[in-house]
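Hi all, long-time lurker, first post. I run a small reading group and we've been trying to get comfortable going from sequence to structure in the token notation. Rather than ask abstract questions, I figured I'd post a concrete chain and ask someone more experienced to write out its structure so we can walk through it together at our next meeting. Sequence below, copied exactly:
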Amino acid sequence: MMMQPDPHLALVRPVSPRTPDGCEECLRLGTPWVHLRLCLTCGHVGCCDSSPERHARRHAGSTAHPVVAPMEPGENWRWCYVHEAMV
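-- Answer (accepted) --
Happy to help. Here is the structure in token form:
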């Protein structure tokens, strides 16, 4: 059985980080983060699920932009929050 590609990959665009220095909301609120995730639809930078506020997941849920990539050097993967899987 052949796996079908994630349909949310159609939402991926060439983007630049809107806040390359950190999580957009955490920078505004003064809260800490663990790792950063880049929304591959609009360039929003949010904190990961290991961070206290989980802003990347919140952004995905509120905007229907489900695919993110890590902002850590050397990491090259994509995650779909809808399917809870690598894409």
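A couple of things your group might point at:
The two ends are 17 Å apart (CA to CA).
Residues 23-86 form a domain with the Herpes Virus-1 fold (CATH 3.30.40.10).
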